Amino acid sequence: MSEKEPICFYYGNGKLTELCAYPRVVLQPEFYSSEELAYLKEQGVQPLGYLTLSEDQGPPAVWQRPEKNPDWGGHFVYVGHPQWVEHVVGQARAAMAAGFDGLFLDTLNVELTFPEDVPHLLTLVAAIRAEAKPAYMLANRGFGMLPRLAELVDGVVFESFSARWTDDGYAPWPPDVLEFHAQIAEQLLRLELDLYALDYADTPGLTDFAVRRARMFGMQCVVSDRALSRV
After folding, report:
1. pTM value?
2. Which alpha helices (DSSP H) does 99-171 contain, by range?
């Protein structure tokens, strides 16, 4: 793409100069100092700290379920566990104190794994908004919480809207999934939210397909690799 993307999802460290080209960036909080975040904000960049809400990569804890995410290895959690809520809200507060302007909320698709946790997840998102007071909250998917989620966040990312990573590389979704995603996108368009697509591709053709399709549904599109290592 010749034009700059509206947001950058970068899970590495450093590259401050390159990150300054974006109006908004999603970063891993542990990789950036308060001084680096202050520098980005001085350049007109809004940094958002990554925050997972239903999976835990940490050491054994009382809130962890026995099941793990097969793709990334983290434990699923009991979202409503009081100590998990305290843990996550504490992480959100720490990110704000470090200098982040807002938060990127990940692992919100509990309706696909533990649907009984959907109400707990909404409560957790509301607690983060009320107690950490981020200026901007961006949700990754979370469609099982709509339309209530739209009252709590400022934007939604539709990850893997058109293109995805697989064990064999990168590929578009099959037609039935693309149609299902289109129905969700039409629902999102009725909400007053910033809308982004985050797709995965490694060729110009697949990238162009993802960008053009996102625009058809009112979404600004970001294309990256599986590890979100591109700036």
Report:
1. 0.95
2. 118-132
